[in-house]
Design goal:
Order of helices and strands of chain C: HHHEEHHHHHHHHHHHHHHHHH
Helix content of chain C: over 70%
Low-confidence stretches of chain A: 501-507, 509-523
Distance between the termini of chain A: 29 Å
Mean pLDDT of chain A: 85
Shape of chain A: globular
Mean pLDDT of chain C: 88
GO molecular function (chain B): NADH dehydrogenase (ubiquinone) activity; NADH dehydrogenase activity
Strand order of the largest sheet of chain C: 1-2
Number of helices of chain C: 20
Number of strands of chain C: 2
Keywords (chain B): Membrane, Transmembrane, Transmembrane helix
Shape of chain C: globular
Low-confidence stretches of chain C: none
Largest sheet of chain C: 2 strands, antiparallel
Number of helices of chain A: 20
Chains: A mainly alpha, B mainly alpha, C mainly alpha, D mainly alpha
GO biological process, one term (chain B): ATP synthesis coupled electron transport
Largest interface: A-B, 55 and 53 residues
Helix content of chain A: over 70%
Subcellular location (chain B): Endomembrane system; Membrane
Membrane topology (chain B): Multi-pass membrane protein
Oligomer: heterotetramer
């Protein structure tokens, strides 16, 4: 029930924030802050109350199932495991930041703004929680519309174009996923007469290779566009750079993560054989993304656009890791989702701070800010370093684990991905150089960060350091769910091994089986 | 005492953290106390620990601070492993580091970014300590990149000058290239051994790999890649001369004494791999030999005092690589230590000169400083003598001679490598004394504003003494035969035995080395002191000028890389700034728009056309129904 | 006719009486409000009378009608829609100069025609229903004589409708000629035995498709749609877009199910082509359009294309999907045109994109409602349109019509663009404070505002909790065995 | 009547239908268009009568009467509309009434 409350609090908070504008112009901000904070506290409470040790057997911590459209086998299923929990923590943390950074930036239609903000968060929360494919698609789309409004109403000059592009890309890919969901639904239903969208039941569907491939591509379409993977990335730079700061932060920090989450949660366990077939290509796409994004990032002059392309590059690691199918890589991917959410979010926030002060995003107009705003400089430095993968910061753990994992799967692609780290250095340092070091062509007055801004930035620094130096709590939380996602693959491997040593182990197995049978009896 | 190991890197980190957080609000004195004090206490602990180590003679001390993370059998820790090798390194780092910090309080006294400087320096010391104390390669990598970051921050310390920023980025990016190779090496090691714990790898490697295994060679070469990046060896040496853009204490600490020798440390640390991979080890030797020559020639031609020293550093590290490459592990490390003393000394002297001359670095504008700055002159001279390996009295002689000796007489030695080493020694003493003569002799060209104070001279004197006496802990067989250092190293690094045939005549080779070094001094004296006209006549020939330009530019490596990698990359990036893939999607949109225009032509508003539309539809339907 | 027949035909009779009463009242005393109330009451009464017929098994009134749960549901849908439209009409016509009262009579008659259509089982009743619907519509379209384009729209519709009726009639004649019967049951019985359909019969079916296709405004019989939508008053447009299509679609489903037209690949091919062409042409035509009414017209063409996808599924799920979609689509369309009607002034309808600029700032609630409607048309979750589209997709996937389904997806994406375009215009920040347009007393808008609110709520309700509606629709078909796929 | 006459009569209806159709297509005057449509409707009526007589049923004739009634209603509305158009445009050319397009 606590899961439902999380979503309800956000949605109700959103409506309330919208309506409260009439009573007092500041009220929406406080309501939004309060709603997200409440959710954050709930999530932290959930995390603390479930120590890693108890995660053992079943990865699921909390489950909720309410029939919704029983005629179609649609149930309102919310379930929480370690992976979802981590994603929720990230969601609410970034949500709080998003509310805080909009405190001064958003001046018109604040009520509606916060409505949209909270509903995006609600949609994302739903995506991370639901274990019913219909509901998943439902939330998947629900998070897009408010996002569209965030970009389209409060964005920068070219906002309409960006908003269209964002919406069309994500919708198009989402519809393909819907087709795949339906295909899976009918295949599963025709096999055993149980027509349902329940994730847990669909997991057991046996698919013909051809069908599995097609359905996988349907799911992939949505997730790869959202992630995004080159060549489906072209919505991202526009959307990120035109959105208001809160929008960019949510886009980079959370929306992209839903794609990664989808890959982990749905693509891997649903189509174990098809993904193995597709893995080299997927990893190739990842590497191309890493390098292509890095090259593009290097040439940008618009700060937010630059950071946007770095996201393309960083998300390449995600797909590289996901399709390596081992625990190192997947832990790396989970870490990457969190660390990238923080680091890129922080870079967008800094870009937002600068925009608020200078009213430009052009790094040609900036420079020499270290002298004027040393606090901002230090914080920017931390996150620039995070983005180039400096050890000691969260991104390093993520990227290193991913690469270690992907090395086991494919040497050459990993080599190229590692080269991406050099390119990352090039673009990251360019940010520092142009914004904080080199003198600017024109001299602007620039105030350093104020208390509210420090309140936003410092926790992020602390978190990214924590992730870099002691990531174990996060890793422990994710482990059971990652093993769950990988189960199908380990079975595959085991099967192959079994074929090889089947005779030797025949005896052993029969003993094991009898043991298993013995344990079954009391049940 | 060994329970306090963690304090050694922790104190500088703490100092750095405090300086970052509160630096701007503290007084200069407080900043200085914090910055110098943290390193000082570290140094104190190190010395105490070192004494304990020498008296107890354990194989190593080990301390795990916390488990970093643990994923599916991959469990690196934040843990420190202190054996003789790392003890030598942390001694040099903390002790020399302390002296340089002390020196900096005077050197940077007028800088407005005083706290930032010490924050970065402390951070560097902490990272460097972590690098050498790490018990696993991942933690080592953390320190490795951490020192890279500090190097970047300190090279670009005076950030308002774009050239400094450029040099800083160049340093970071080029070393990152090496780091990438090293990272791949780590992947292979992890895949093979299932761990990155150094000791485990070292013990298991001989069991898993036989000598000359392809994998071992690959790993060796990849680690070498990391090492050449960090240590400024061929082919990734180009960043180091530019790194002199940073404040001089930075050059002394990072780009002479400590960070650039991280590559030496890495190779020595992983010596088992190189033992298993003779090809890789040979590559180390060749890289060292070639680098020491190339850098030596370049050093000959430089006018900027610090650039001479930079090239000299590259060249001296070349010697260390050469030593490691021929299996003279202990000799390489010994040279590292000695080099740290005298090169830090030289840089600090150079800093004193530069400070006194209002940041003038061009040697052509110096001269006659002998009288003006006697302390600096004498200490510089000692450092130069050590660098040039003047026989008997300098420690540089003993360390370099040991390398040269094993290059020839060691089991992996070769006459070619030896010749390269000898040639390098000659060049070294030429450019060293060229420096001495140009700077301290001749007429005074720039006025000395204020002679250096005590805080500057005390470190110089201490380092000068060390440069003179520290060589005596390791003397050749035929020359009192003191083997304190190699004895210390023996449990960690394998020893080396010289060819017996040659060993009988060791004195002859020592003589050759001594003559070569003195000969170099003489040549320098000839050209730069006695008859500069001779030099001018040689320099004026067109061939010499071309050669000079070529050497001056560091053998054209910068231009080569610029044309081969940087320009094409930037060109490509700018070419694709608007993202070619995006135009595919815009094309789709335009296509849809085109279709719209086409279709809307049919909506002409004319009734008859609409009728015709229905008729066409009817005909179509009837045709289909009749045909099918 | 027996007494029971009357009972079963009660809704139709109520409408007929209401039309007559209205005429008499108009003759005696012209008063907008009274006529309006009578109309509303009669719709409500007709609707309520349906409750008597809940859950009935098919009751045949030979040879013309059959009243079964399918028919009852569709009549209910039509009546409810007409009621909502009449609610929206009051404020719209109140501000016009013309005499308003006859409008309601025509509206009732049209509705009557549509209701007749959906329970027909005979060509004669089909024809009667269709023509009652059409002839009333001719006048409705050009009802506002004073307006520029009303008679252009009227004459276009009249000529084309009559033209296509001729096709329909001739087709019927050919079918009758070859089979000797005009009742659906008879036709079904006659052709089950035929191994292949004779040429004359096929020609007849083909010509009937032309007639039906015209009413449904599917490609290539769609060209009248934008012009008529633009020229007609907004409530009438809403009526054309909903009621008239529901009637025709109802009879199409009934006829096809009865004769099991899905057996004939020829017919399937024709409908497939028509469906794809409708989706593509409708969406592409709307793409850069700047007239909101025309956008909605083109979008209705593509929506009919979507409906045909479910229709082509040819099984119970398909028909369920159509029915569900119709409900969702009606809520949305009536809502959308309701907004248009609300924003219209005395001179002209609010049809240009310009009229909607920064609407969010001027009239936030109206803008919100319109946004919801547009999102529903685009098939975005939380709205009924999404569930409808989902249902259709499910039907398509279920029968593995990949071509149609992928076309549907492609077109949904194209469609998104122009729906979003309207929303984007509404959400634009105003440059200057717009002058408020002259409006009538707020109380007059009460009905319109209430209707819009109800529609918006319904839209969300069906979008969030579709189970109730799905249940209702599935019940119809479980109690009407004729519609289970043969 | 025997079968062949039936078919001939149906053919006649078809020809009539086609004539009407073609003249709707080629005429620009709205009144003529309306008349042509009436011809088509009557052709359909004729076809019904033929069919009815083929099966010896009254249904065809009933349908014909329906058609007549409907046509009359249609013409009356149609003429009213055409009058309006003439008032506004001062022409009966249907092409002139093409303000709405695109």
């Amino acid at each position: 029930m606590i899961l439902l409350w999380m979503i309800v609090i956000l949605m109700a908070g959103g409506l309330l924030a919208w309506l409260s504008k009439k009573w007092h112009p500041v009220l929406p901000r406080w309501i939004a802050l309060f709603a997200v904070l409440t959710d954050f506290i709930l999530a932290v409470y959930l995390w603390l109350s479930t120590p890693a040790a108890t995660l053992g057997a079943s990865p699921w911590l909390v489950q909720l199932e309410i029939p919704w459209v029983p005629q179609w086998g649609v149930n309102f299923i919310l379930a929480l495991d370690g992976l979802s929990l981590l994603m929720l923590l990230l969601t609410f943390f970034i949500g709080i930041l998003a509310v805080l950074i909009s405190w001064r930036e958003i001046k018109v239609k604040t009520g509606f703004f916060h409505f949209n903000l909270l509903w995006v968060l609600a949609g994302i929360t739903g995506v991370f929680l639901t274990m019913d494919l219909f509901l998943f698609y439902f939330f998947w789309e629900v998070m897009l519309i408010p996002m569209y409004f965030l970009i389209g109403v409060w964005g920068h000059a070219n906002r309409n174009y960006a908003a269209y592009k964002f919406f069309l890309f994500t919708q198009a890919s989402g519809l393909l996923m819907l087709l795949a969901i339906l295909g899976l639904y009918f295949i599963h239903g025709s096999q055993n007469g149980n027509y349902t969208f329940n994730y847990f039941e669909l997991l057991g569907t046996t698919l013909a290779p051809e069908a599995a491939r097609l359905l996988m591509f349907g799911f992939l379409a949505a997730f790869l566009v959202k992630l995004p993977v080159v060549p489906f990335h072209s919505w991202l730079p526009d959307a990120h750079s035109e959105a208001p700061t809160a929008g960019s932060v949510i886009l980079a920090g959370l929306l992209l993560k839903t794609g990664a989450y989808g890959l982990l949660r749905f693509v891997l366990p649903l189509f174990p054989t098809a993904t193995v077939e597709f893995a080299p290509w997927a990893m190739l796409l990842g590497v191309v993304g890493i390098i292509y994004g890095a090259i593009l990032a290097y040439s940008q002059t618009d700060l937010k656009r630059l950071v946007a392309y770095t996201s393309v590059s960083h998300m390449g690691f995600v797909i590289l890791g996901v399709f390596a199918f081992n625990e190192w890589a997947l832990q790396g991917v989970v870490m990457q989702m969190i660390a990238h959410g923080l680091s890129t979010g922080a870079l967008f926030i800094i870009a937002g701070f600068l925009y608020e002060r200078l009213h430009t995003r052009d790094i040609g107009q900036m420079g020499g800010f270290w002298a004027k705003a040393p606090k901002m400089g230090v914080i920017a430095l931390v996150f620039v370093m995070a983005s180039l993968g400096l050890p000691g910061l969260g991104n390093f753990i993520a990227e290193f684990l991913t690469l270690v994992g992907s090395w086991q799967a494919n040497n050459w692609l990993t080599v190229f991905a590692t080269i991406g780290l050099v390119l990352a250095t090039a673009y990251s340092l360019r940010i520092m150089q142009k914004v904080f070091y080199e003198p600017a062509p024109t001299d602007h007055p620039l105030a350093d960060l104020n208390v509210r801004e420090m309140l936003i930035a410092v926790p992020m620094v602390v978190l990214i350091l924590w992730l870099g130096l002691y990531p174990q709590p996060v890793l422990d939380t994710a482990t059971p769910s990652i093993n769950q996602q990988l189960q199908a693959y380990q079975e595959l491997e085991v099967k192959e091994e079994k074929v090889a040593v089947v005779e030797e182990k025949a005896e052993e197995q029969s003993i094991k089986q009898t043991k298993r049978e013995n344990t079954k009896v009391p049940l | 005492m060994e329970n306090y190991i963690w304090l050694i890197p922790a104190l500088p980190f703490l100092g750095s953290l405090l300086l970052i957080l509160f630096g701007t609000r503290l007084s200069r004195t407080a900043v200085a106390i914090l910055g110098v004090g943290s390193v000082g206490i570290s140094a104190l602990i190190t010395i105490l620990l070192g004494l304990q180590f020498l008296s107890e003679k354990p194989a190593f001390y080990h301390q795990e601070v916390w488990q970093w993370f643990s994923v599916a059998g991959f469990n690196p820790s934040i843990a420190f492993h202190l054996d003789a090798l790392s003890t030598v390194f942390i001694f040099v780092i903390t002790f020399v580091g302390f002296l340089i910090h002390l020196y900096s309080t005077a050197y940077m006294a007028d800088d407005s970014d005083f706290p930032r400087f010490f924050a970065c320096m402390n951070l560097f010391v902490g990272s460097m300590l972590k690098l050498v104390m790490a018990d696993n390669l991942l933690l080592l990598y953390l320190g490795w990149e951490g020192v890279g970051l500090c190097s970047y921050l300190l090279i670009g310390f005076w950030y308002k000058e774009p050239a400094n920023g450029y040099a800083a980025r160049k340093a970071f990016i080029i070393t990152r290239v090496g780091d990438t190779a090293m990272a791949i090496g780590l992947f292979i090691l992890f895949q093979t051994f299932g761990t990155l714990n150094i000791q485990t790898i070292l013990t298991e490697a001989p069991e898993v790999w036989s000598v000359g295994t392809q994998m071992a060679v690959l790993v060796g070469l990849l680690l070498l890649g990391g090492a050449v990046g960090k240590s400024g060896q061929l082919p990734l040496q180009t960043w180091l001369p530019d790194a002199m853009a940073g404040p001089t204490p930075v050059s002394a600490l990072i780009h002479a004494a400590t960070m650039v020798t991280a590559g030496v440390y890495l190779i020595a640390r992983m010596y088992v791999i190189f033992d298993l991979a003779p090809v890789a080890q040979l590559a180390v030797a060749i890289v060292g030999a070639v680098t020491l020559l190339l850098a030596g020639f370049s050093a000959l031609t430089q006018y900027d005092l610090k650039r001479v020293l930079a090239y000299s550093t590259i060249s001296q590290i070349g010697y260390m690589f050469l030593a490691l490459g021929v299996g003279a592990w202990s000799a390489g490390i010994f040279h590292f230590m000695i080099h740290a003393f005298f090169k830090a000394l030289l840089f600090l002297c150079a800093g004193a000169i530069i400070l006194a001359l209002h940041h003038e670095q061009d040697m052509r504008k110096m001269g006659g400083l002998r009288k003006r700055m006697p302390v600096v002159f004498w200490t510089f001279l000692i450092g130069a003598a050590s660098l040039a390996a003047l026989p008997v009295i300098t420690s540089g002689f003993y360390s370099k001679d040991q390398i040269l000796w094993y290059t020839l007489a060691g089991p992996q030695g070769s006459i070619w490598l030896y010749m390269a080493g000898l040639a390098g020694a000659f060049i070294t003493s030429v450019y060293t004394f060229r420096m001495v003569f140009m700077t301290f002799y001749g007429e005074e060209k720039t006025h000395v504003a204020h002679p250096p104070g005590k805080v500057i001279t005390i470190p110089l004197v201490i380092l000068a003494i060390l440069s003179l006496v520290s060589g005596f802990i390791e003397l050749p067989h035929n020359f009192a035969h003191v083997a304190l250092f190699s004895g210390l190293m023996a449990p960690v690094l394998p020893g080396i035995t010289a060819n017996e045939l040659l060993a009988a005549n060791e004195w002859m080779f020592q003589l050759i080395a001594a003559v070569i070094s003195l000969g170099g001094v003489f040549v320098a004296y000839l050209f730069y002191q006695k008859s500069p006209a001779l030099l001018a006549s040689i320099e004026n020939s067109s061939f010499a000028m071309a050669l000079h330009r070529f050497w001056f530019s560091g053998w054209g490596f910068d231009a080569l890389y610029d044309n081969l990698f940087v320009r094409p990359y930037v060109f490509l990036a700018n070419l694709n700034k608007r993202d070619i893939i995006d135009s595919f999607y815009t094309g789709l949109a335009q296509m849809a728009e085109g279709f719209h225009v086409m279709f809307s032509q049919t909506q002409s508003g004319v009734l008859r056309n609409y009728v015709a539309g229905i008729v066409v539809g009817a005909i179509m339907i009837l045709t289909i129904s009749l045909l099918l | 006719m027996t007494q029971t027949d009357f009972l079963y035909l009660m809704p139709l009779i109520i409408l007929t009486v209401a039309a007559l009463v209205n005429m008499l009242v108009v003759a005696a005393w012209r008063n907008h409000k009274i006529i309006y109330v009578i109309t509303a009451v009669s719709f409500v009464a007709a609707f309520l009378s349906l409750f008597e017929l809940r859950g009935i098994t098919a009751y045949t009134i030979d040879p013309l009608f059959v009243i079964d749960s399918f028919g009852v549901f569709y009549i209910g849908l039509i009546l409810a829609t007409s009621l909502l439209i009449s609610m929206l009409s009051y404020a719209y016509f109140e501000q016009r100069e013309e005499q308003k009262e006859e409008y309601y009579i025509l509206l009732i008659l049209s509705t009557l025609g549509a209701c007749t259509l959906v329970i027909s089982t005979h060509f004669a009743s089909l024809f009667l229903g269709l023509e009652v619907l059409s002839v009333a519509l001719y006048s409705l379209i050009s009802y506002l004589r004073g307006r520029e384009h009303s008679d252009e729209a009227g004459v276009k519709y009249l000529i084309l409708a009559a033209f296509s009726s001729a096709f329909l009639l001739f087709g019927m004649a050919l079918v009758y000629f070859s089979l000797g019967t005009m009742s659906f049951g008879g036709i079904a019985a006659a052709i089950t035995d035929l191994p292949t359909l004779p040429l004359l019969l096929l020609t007849g079916f083909g010509m009937m498709i032309v007639g039906i296709g015209f009413k449904l405004s599917v490609v290539p019989f769609h060209m009248w749609t934008p012009d008529v939508y633009e020229g007609a008053p907004a409530p009438v447009t809403a009526f054309i877009a909903t009621v008239s299509k529901a009637g025709v679609l109802g009879i199409l489903i009934r006829f096809f199910m009865e004769v099991d037209g899905f057996r004939y690949p020829t017919l399937l091919t024709i409908f497939t082509i028509v469906a794809i062409a409708s989706m593509i042409a409708g969406n592409l035509l709307a793409l850069m359009q700047t007239n909101v009414k025309r956008i909605l017209a083109y979008s209705s063409i593509s929506h009919l294309g979507y409906l045909l996808v479910a229709f082509l599924a040819g099984n119970q799920m398909g028909v369920e999907a159509i029915t569900f979609y119709l409900v969702a689509y009606f809520i949305t369309t009536v809502g959308a045109f309701g907004v248009v009607a609300m924003l219209s002034d005395t001179e002209r309808d609010a049809e240009l994109l310009e009229d909607y600029r920064s609407l969010l700032w001027r009239r936030p609630w109206t803008a919100t409602a319109f946004t919801a409607m547009l999102l529903s048309l685009a098939g975005i979750p939380l709205t009924a349109g999404f569930v409808g589209k989902f249902y259709i997709l499910a039907a398509g996937v279920n029968t593995q019509q990949w071509l149609l389904v992928s076309m549907l997806v492609l077109n949904s994406i194209i469609g998104l663009y122009y729906y979003i375009k309207i929303i984007a215009v509404m959400f634009q920040q105003p440059e200057a404070e717009a002058e408020p347009r002259e409006r009538l007393r707020p109380s007059i808008y009460l009905a319109s505002v209430g209707t819009l609110a109800v529609l918006t709520l319904l839209l969300v309700l069906v979008g969030v909790y579709p189970a109730a509606l799905v249940d209702a629709i599935q019940n119809i078909f479980s109690s009407a065995p004729a519609f289970v796929a043969k | 009547m025997n079968v062949s006459t039936m078919e001939a009569a149906l053919l006649l209806a078809g020809v009539l239908f086609m004539l009407g159709l073609i003249s709707v297509l080629i005429r620009r005057n709205v009144i003529f268009m309306l008349i042509s449509v009436e011809i088509m409707l009557n052709a359909a009526g004729l076809a019904f009568i033929v069919a009815g007589s083929k099966w010896v049923q009254p249904d065809g004739q009933v349908m014909f009467i329906f058609i007549l009634t409907m046509a009359a209603a249609e013409v009356s509305v149609g003429l009213a509309l055409i009058l309006q158009i003439y008032h506004q445009l001062k022409t009966l050319d249907s092409d002139a009434a093409s303000f709405m397009k695109g």
